[in-house]
Amino acid sequence: MERRAPSPRVPRARVPSCLAGRSVPSDPGPSLPHPGSRRHTGKMAAAAALPAEWIKNWEKAGKSEFLQLCRTLSENKSHDNMGFRDIQQALYELAYHVVRGNLKHDQASNVLGDVIEFREDMPSILADVFCILDIETSCLEEKSKRDHFTQLVLACLYLVSDTVLKERLDPETLESLGLIKQSQQFNQKSVKIKTKLFYKQQKFNLLREENEGYAKLIAELGQDLSGNITSDLILENIKSLIGCFNLDPNRVLDIILEVYECRPEYDDFFVPLIESYMYMCEPQTLCHILGFKFKFYQDPSGETPSSLYRVAAVLLQHNLIDLEDLYVHLLPGDNAIIEEHKREIVEAKQIVRKLTMVVLSSEKTEEKEKEKEKEEEKTEKPPDNQKLGLLEALLKIGDWQHAQSIMDQMPPFYATSHKPIAVALCQLVHVTIEPLYRRVGVPKGAKGSPIPSLPNKRAPKQADSFEDLRKEVFNMLCYLGPHLSHDPILFAKVVRLGKAFMKEFQSDGSKQEDKEKMEILFSCLLSITDQVLLPSLSLMDCNACMSEELWGMFKTFPYQYRYRLYGQWKNETYNSHPLLVKVKAQTIDRAKYIMKRLTKENVKPSGRQIGKLSHSNPTILFDYILSQIQKYDNLITPVVDSLKYLTSLNYDVLAYCIIEALANPEKERMKHDDTTISSWLQSLASFCGAVFRKYPIELAGLLQYVANQLKAGKSFDLLILKEVVQKMAGIEITEEMTMEQLEAMTGGEQLKAEGGYFGQIRNTKKSSQRLKDALLDHDLALPLCLLMAQQRNGVIFQEGGEKHLKLVGKLYDQCHDTLVQFGGFLASNLSTEDYIKRVPSIDVLCNEFHTPHDAAFFLSRPMYAHHISSKYDELKKAEKGNKQQHKVHKYITSCELVMAPVHDAVISLHLPKVWDDISPQFYATFWSLTMYDLAVPHSSYDREVNKLKVQMKAIDDNQEMPPNKKKKEKERCTALQDKLLEEEKKQLEHVQRVLQRLKLEKDNWLLAKSTKNETITKFLQLCIFPRCIFSAIDAVYCAHFVELVHQQKTPNFSTLLCYDRVFSDIIYTVASCTENEASRYGRFLCCMLETVTRWHSDRVIYEKECGNYPGFLTILRATGFDGGNKADQLDYENFRHVVHKWHYKLTKASVHCLETGEYTHIRNILIVLTKILPWYPKVLNLGQALERRVHKICQEEKEKRPDLYALAMGYSGQLKSRKPYMVPENEFHHKDPPARNAVAATVQNGPGGAGMPTSLSINTAKLEESTAEETDKLKEKSQGAVKVINKAVNATPKVTTSNGNSASNSKIIKEKDDKEKGGKEKDKEKKEKTPAATPETKALGKDGKDKPKEERANKDDKAREIKEKTPKSDKEKEKAKKEEKASKEEKTKTVVTNIDSKSAAEKEREKEPSRERDIAKDMKSKENAKGGEKMPVAGSLKSPVPRSETSESEREQKRRKVDTHSSPSHSSTVKDNLSELKDSSAKHYINHTTPTLSKSKEREVDKKDLDKSRERSREREKKDEKDRKDRKRDHSNSDREVPQDSTKRRKEENGTTGSSKHSKSESPSDSPRSNEKEKEKNKSKSSGKEKGDSIKAEKMEKSSSGSKKESRHDKDKTEKKEKRDSTGGKEEKKHHKSSDKHR
After folding, report:
1. Label partner for 1601 (CA 20 to 30 A): which of 82, 315, 781, 1502?
2. Chain centre to alpha carbon of residue 228
3. pTM of the model
């Protein structure tokens, strides 16, 4: 084959061939500066300058000095070039002195003769010096210097050969020296020689001309080389052949390479041969020849043989050629490679765009055709890439250094994207890691095939330790990148090495230095995972084994590192390489295809497809699946079911993808209306719960995410925790629980699981264990609880700032529910040790962690229970006493041991004065017990056992079931049944022990150091109210606990007060609840009403459960006194009145809430009403009032607020269905006067009578504030005849009103009333004038407006005159004072007259006036402080004993004024206790004062009184009507005298809302007869002593006919006032007649 010789060499002027290859400079001119210029460089140069003294004393010292210098310079061979130059300079200086004439030429030649011996190349150096001087002297004009030079050269001719001089000196100089004859001839001859040498083509012996030499050469190279033949021997033969046959040396080299290509196995022979041969050639020659060889194959059709690449690679590895020199000969150019890389990226992006584009079917076919054409074009073979071929060869022989430098010149991963390169590099890695892999990586039991090392000694060193991996292997892997996918075996090896390294890394036995090295290695391993392993997995074709192998290493990383890696993989890796870009697009395309077809029916096949796809590209797939789930929540179930073919790694990636989706900052967590949580978040949460339950996915990341969100004050994501706990632990939190479920929830764990939840909870053991482990391993159990407890308030005060109230309520409920659910999970799943170890004591929780008290006790409660039971077990083991008493005693001991520290701890939670009324023990007992401790749900146990029996029967009857399955199922049911029965027995014993314990404790529970009233307040405030809205079971517990405290006959606990407080005013409590709290509060009220209704239903039950209990005492004696007196107990009939009053109160509150128009009020009251529906309303007229109001809501809210509309409609329907069960009022409680001795009207203990439903009233001081209409109504409904002396309890002297008393008594009372009202009017006026009405005044707006009528009617003419003046006039004040004085004088008189008739008990009580006063003051201050609170704080009931000092009565009056002003809100909760049984109270006094008087006489006297009073009242009626009309005209501007219609109008104009808005529905029963009743009452009041009796009769009459007339009067609501007035007279006549009949 013809090969062209390399290009000819460039000629060099005047450099003879003898010097070729030597390091003598061809032009030494510049290196020897002119001596005159003295530009010496370096120290040696400076030293070489000959001093003038040497020349002067040449013979004496100079000569020897010079010789010494030359000798030292010659010996110094370390600086190769420097020594050479310095000698040149020394000789030059010497010669120059001769030229200048300072030294004789013979002297110089003698010295030079000696110097010549110092170095072999000295003649050449001397010739160089002469050459320089020749040029210098030829330019000089001074002839003498030229002559001196010539003489010197002639003298030295014996030292330097002629040939050297002929080579270096000018032809003219040579001629003058006589070395040549003629310079001209010499010039011509040299030109001819050069032309022949350089420019004439030499006729070498080429192959085709004369092949013998080459044949012999090939025979030499091709012989068998296995013997003793060495490269040196062959080289000598080659030299001979070149000389003999005149062969071209370049051609010979070419043939050597050609033969080497064919015999690649003889590296050891050919490499030294070429190396030796290269000594004869120029260094570039070999590279040029290789370059020509590569160029030959660069035709479009040419293909470079791999043997040539290999030869080039070996020569590169042995440094016989330079990579830079060879690289330029290879194609394609670097620019072309970069362009190609860019083009690939663009193409990949276009493919992605096509896949994401929506293409219509008609276009699809065209597109496909175009694509086919393009692909055909692409299949044309690309030109050969010689750079990659060389790279592959380098990698195969293990020359990593050169391979790396070639890869560095290309775009990243461009080289390895070609499979041969990737495979070659993988093979190199295989070899490099072999020893280490064999030592630590091979799995047990696997043999594996060992890989032999490369024969090449220059290959990278094999790795024996993890440290060695860092040097080369990690680097190689980084160059491989995603293309490790070509070699799954290497992938597995690298992963196994990673596993082995992590094992070593996590063992603690290493030193500090090693640890630092290990840390570096660990970070390298993470980088390799990120850049190589995960991308390679993406390019592998669905290899589940690799995924599992990788998980083996991944599970040793903490989840933070894993998630970081998944994040990089998902969001960055896929954009780094065109191949990955394509893979991502294809994965999404495939995922869309699968998800479109996924249904419940084809879960299995779709699941397999999802599994296949997920092995390689889980992040992309899950991202798409989650995006679909967020849009379509009906996909959740099929997707969860279809994920069963995933690998462990994929499950972990799924957890990461879920968290990333949750944390997506671009997604809004609220819907557009800002009132509900977004559906995407709800769907994700639901998916989370299902997927984490079903598959073994690590939870730590998700739980930490929720904790971090809570730390950041965001509670939306609690939805996820709620779902996860619900699904994994089977603990449901829902407000829609039925009473049966609730009951089941009060039993043991087994009963809860069977009957307590909506879904049948099965097989949660494993999943709840996983959840527990995740919480404990990462210490998240307590932090999550505390964060949730703190976040509840955070929702309102921080998070809820800008949010809609409805959403804030939802978030609060979600936070609270999740806390309850999560706490329940911890309580049932953590072992005692774990729990106690993690939950701090109650005081630390509350004071240091600022956990709200209800939550803190909720978390601590299971701890106490665990603790007590473990202590109890210990004590049982210690003493083997089986008697029940012993067991109880041990139980109580263990309780004391556990609870004593708690009693001490709770003291710090509240102010010291709290503990004056309730003991820390009582507080701790209340908060530490649960329903499980108080009662056994026998019916629930029975229900579940019966269900199981039915199930077993069904199994028996089932003919299709195979026998072995039947047997299994029956065994399961039997085992469950046994478990339930065992659990019931265990609970029963436990409850008995607890009740024994409470019996012993109860005497120390309520201290009541201030008053019983205050005690009840504290109990409700700190115990009942916070806990009853905590959870549904707690609501039931609170009601049950109140009943239990009553049944235990706890000292100082007034059951009546307690119930009264709970039912009296629910508006504030309802208004401040969230939706779920309202539901729980409703449950609580429902349970309370259930108890009350049970007592109300049957006298026998009442007598048995309440008859002789201290909770139903109506006299609150000094603490410690046991009221066993039957007369002090509230009897059954009066109790029924009280219950009616409570129902009335509930109605009033409900109507008020429904009328406010406030979303929260309406929603909450409807929820509460729905919950209490079984027990309320029971009275027909109250039910009708509610029904009308709810109907109105339905109409109003239908368009505006559909959720309220739905609630109202739901309630309305249920209410209608309850109608048949309602009873008329007279059936609910007897309205005729009860037995006279029913009630003891004496009230002793200061403000302690707030709940007394008889003649005692809550906050009686406020009685005056209640509207005349309301009080009349109440009198009408809740009892028979009512005595007028209803102010007796407000510290007015109690005047006995038997017939024996003189009329003056009633006058005194009347005047007294007037005075009180005068004082109150002032306060009332002040109130009405204040522009900003408090919520309370709004709520009770009716009272304020109607009051003037009552006051007017009750006053005589003087009082009227006072009223007509301006409200704050001085005259008014003076008159009031005068009247006060008069009344005081009269009082003292009555005290004298009545002092004899006092009972002994009253005398005793008189001794304690000061104490009562103090208590009253305390109560007053409390009321003032708590003016706007939801609950009435205290009712100041004064002793009915007359006071002897006038100063005292003044104080009382002032106190009354303060009371009325301080808290108007109380009037509604207060007003009617007194009115209910004033009559009976008065009669009780009759019994005390005139025991001899017979009943028959009394009746006669009553009849006479009635007749008189009728006549008087008729006369008065006419006068009053006239007066009233006059007043209407004159005083329309004064607030207190505005008639109802105008008040109504004005209110509507001002836009004031409140219960007074609709005057027609002033009281819940909506009776329009209010004005008439007022008139009648006013007249009767002003008619002296007989007035009381007449009213009594009238009221009886009215009450009997009241319920019948109500419905008729509803129609008259909108009629005008005149009409109403005119009907008044007729109505009254009817009343008189009916009262006659009645008498």
Report:
1. 1502
2. 81
3. 0.64
